[in-house]
C-alpha cells in the first residue's frame, strides 16, 4: 500500500503578518495532484490542521474544499487533531464524514478503534492518536502521572491490545501528534512541556510498522519506522534551511517500508541576512535574495536612520528587522534581550527574573516546583478552553490563580 504522510498545515496562519492562505491553497492543490499522479492509496494527516482552536472562516472554507476533493478522489484519508486544533470542533460531523472515506480521529477514547485499510496482501490497521494533553486525559488512561510519555504509552497499550485480536500478519500504522525524543524543534511550534517533561521516547511505538508523526515542523526520520513529515510551509525564519516535503511511503506485504520525500511548493524562500545596513545594501552576493522573505540582523554600532525603508528598496519582502550591534574588538559583548531569551523556556525566564529581583538569589527547589505548577495550570487551562471543556477550564483556571498567588507569596520574599 502506498500512503502520503503530511501534517501541520496550520490553515489560517500568517508569517510575520503576511497571510499564507494562498500558499496553503497551493499546497493543497499539490497534495491532490500528488495523490492522483503518484497513485496514492491513503492520505495520513498527523494533526494541526488549523492554526488555532477557532480558525477564520477562510481557513474553514479551505479545509472544507480539501475534504470534498479528497472524498471525490476516493482515497481514504485519516486525520487526527493536534495541539493547535480544537478536537471537539474539528470532530463535529466525524461520523457522517467517515462515510465519505474521511476519517477524523479527535476523541482519545477511540484511539484503539482503527480505520481498516486493505490491499492485495491483506488488512492494514490504521490507528489515530489525537494530541493527548496529559492533564486532561490521565484519568481516561488511568496513568499515575500527567506526563506525555505516560499517556501515550497507555494509549499505545490499547492499540497493541486491539492489534493482538487481529488476524496474524495484519500490518499497522499509528498517527500521533507529539514531541518524540531525537526530534529537532523550530521557533514556530507551541510548547507542550508538562512539568518540564515533553519528550516521548521513540520506543513507545515499538512493534508498529509505521508511526506518522506531527508537531515538529522539520521533516525528520527518528527511526526508519518513526518519522515526522514536517509542515508543508515555513512558519518562522528558524525554518529557513528546511526542505519542505511530504513522505510518500510504500508498505509491502511483510510490513517493510520504502519512504520518499515529495517536495511541496514554496511561495518564497526564506533568508536570514546579517551585517551592517550598508553592507546588506551593497553586497552583490545577496542578489539572489531580492525575491525572498527576509529577516535582517543589523550589526551597525549605531542604529541607522530608516533601516526598514532602506532595506525594502533592495529586499522588498523584508519581514523582520533585528538589531545586534557588534562591539569593538576587545570590548565586552552585550547580548540583546532577544538573544538572552532565545531558546529559553518560560520556566527558565521566570527563574531568571526571580534571581534578578532578589539580587542574584536563585529560586530553590520548592519555589521552582511552584513556578512549574503555575505554568502547567495556565497551559492546561488554555488547552481545555480550546477543546471546549468548560468544567476543566473552571477547575484549571482556579488552580492557575491559586498557583500564581502561591508563587507571588513564596518567591517574593526579600524583594523589598
Indicate the topology.
Elements: E1 2-6, E2 14-15, E3 18-19, H1 21-37, E4 42-46, H2 57-72, E5 77-80, H3 87-90, H4 94-98, E6 102-105, E7 115-119, E8 122-129, H5 134-141, H6 148-163, E9 171-177, E10 210-214, E11 220-223, E12 226-228, E13 245-251, E14 257-263, E15 270-275, H7 277-282, E16 293-298, H8 307-314, E17 318-323, H9 337-341, H10 346-357, H11 365-387, H12 390-411
Helix pairs in contact: 1-2, 5-6, 10-11, 11-12
Protein name: Nuclease SbcCD subunit D
Domain Nuclease SbcCD subunit D C-terminal: 267-356
Subunit structure: Heterodimer of SbcC and SbcD.
Defining key terms:
single chain, 416 residues, alpha/beta, Purple Acid Phosphatase, chain A, domain 2, 3 domains, six-stranded mixed sheet, 12 helices, globular
Return the CATH topology of the largest domain.
Purple Acid Phosphatase, chain A, domain 2
Overall SS class? alpha/beta
Q: What would the principal axes of the Cα set say about the shape?
A: globular
CATH superfamily of the largest domain: Metallo-dependent phosphatases
| H/E series | EEEHEHEHHEEEHHEEEEEEEHEHEHHHH
Helix coverage percent: 25-40%
Summed over residues and divided by their number, the pLDDT gives a mean of 88
Largest sheet: 6 strands, mixed
CATH class of the largest domain: Alpha Beta
Q: Beta-strand percentage?
A: 15-25%
Strand order, main sheet: write it out: 6-5-4-1-13-14
Number of helical segments with 4 or more residues:
12
Q: What is the β-strand count?
A: 17
CATH architecture assignment of the largest domain: 4-Layer Sandwich
Give the uncertain stretches in residue-range form: none
The value of Rg in angstroms is 24 Å
- Oligomerization status of the protein chains: single chain
Number of domains: 3
Report how far apart the termini are.
68 Å
InterPro entries: Calcineurin-like_PHP, DNA_Repair-Maintenance_Comp, Metallo-depent_PP-like, Mre11_N, SbcD, SbcD_C
GO molecular function: exonuclease activity
Region (Disordered): 390-416
Domain Nuclease SbcCD subunit D C-terminal: 267-356
Amino acid at each position: 500500500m502506498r500512503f502520503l504522510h503530511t501534517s501541520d498545515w496550520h490553515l489560517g496562519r500568517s508569517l510575520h503578518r503576511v497571510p499564507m492562505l494562498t500558499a496553503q491553497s497551493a499546497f493543497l492543490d499539490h497534495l491532490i495532484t500528488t495523490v492522483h499522479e503518484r497513485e496514492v492509496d491513503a492520505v495520513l494527516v498527523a494533526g494541526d490542521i488549523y492554526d488555532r482552536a477557532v480558525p477564520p472562516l477562510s481557513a474553514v472554507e479551505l479545509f472544507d474544499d480539501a475534504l470534498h476533493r479528497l472524498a471525490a478522489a476516493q482515497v481514504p484519508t485519516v486525520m487526527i487533531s493536534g495541539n493547535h486544533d480544537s478536537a471537539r470542533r474539528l470532530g463535529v460531523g466525524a461520523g457522517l464524514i467517515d462515510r465519505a472515506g474521511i476519517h477524523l480521529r479527535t476523541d482519545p477514547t477511540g484511539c484503539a478503534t482503527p480505520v481498516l485499510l486493505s490491499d492485495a496482501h491483506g488488512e492494514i490497521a490504521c490507528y489515530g492518536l489525537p494530541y493527548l494533553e496529559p492533564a486532561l486525559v490521565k484519568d481516561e488512561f488511568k496513568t499515575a502521572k500527567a506526563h506525555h510519555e505516560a499517556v501515550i504509552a497507555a494509549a499505545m497499550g490499547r492499540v497493541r491490545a486491539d492489534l493482538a485480536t487481529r488476524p496474524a500478519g495484519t500490518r499497522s500504522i499509528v498517527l500521533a501528534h507529539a514531541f518524540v525524543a531525537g526530534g529537532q524543534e523550530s521557533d514556530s511550534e507551541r510548547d507542550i512541556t508538562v512539568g518540564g517533561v515533553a519528550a516521548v521516547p521513540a520506543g513507545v511505538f515499538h512493534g508498529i510498522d509505521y508511526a506518522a508523526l506531527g508537531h515538529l515542523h522539520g521533516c525528520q526520520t527518528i527511526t526508519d519506522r518513526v518519522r515526522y513529515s514536517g509542515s508543508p510551509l515555513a512558519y518562522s525564519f528558524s525554518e529557513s534551511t528546511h526542505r519542505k516535503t511530504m513522505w510518500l511511503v510504500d508498505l509491502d506485504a511483510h510490513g517493510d517500508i520504502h519512504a520518499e520525500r515529495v517536495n511541496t511548493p514554496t511561495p518564497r524562500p526564506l533568508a536570514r541576512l546579517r551585517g551592517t545596513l550598508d553592507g546588506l545594501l551593497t553586497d552583490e552576493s545577496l542578489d539572489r535574495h531580492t525575491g525572498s522573505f527576509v529577516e535582517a540582523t543589523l550589526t551597525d554600532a549605531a542604529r541607522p536612520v530608516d533601516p526598514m525603508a532602506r532595506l525594502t528598496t533592495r529586499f522588498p519582502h523584508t519581514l523582520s528587522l533585528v538589531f545586534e550591534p557588534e562591539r569593538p574588538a576587545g570590548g565586552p559583548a552585550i547580548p540583546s534581550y532577544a538573544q538572552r531569551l532565545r531558546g529559553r523556556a518560560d520556566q527558565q525566564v521566570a527563574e531568571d527574573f526571580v534571581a534578578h529581583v532578589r539580587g542574584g538569589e536563585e529560586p530553590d527547589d520548592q519555589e521552582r516546583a511552584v513556578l512549574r505548577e503555575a505554568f502547567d495550570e495556565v497551559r492546561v487551562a488554555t488547552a481545555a478552553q480550546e477543546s471546549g471543556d468548560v468544567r476543566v477550564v473552571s477547575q484549571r483556571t482556579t488552580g492557575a490563580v491559586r498557583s500564581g498567588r502561591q508563587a507571588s507569596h513564596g518567591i517574593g520574599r526579600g524583594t523589598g
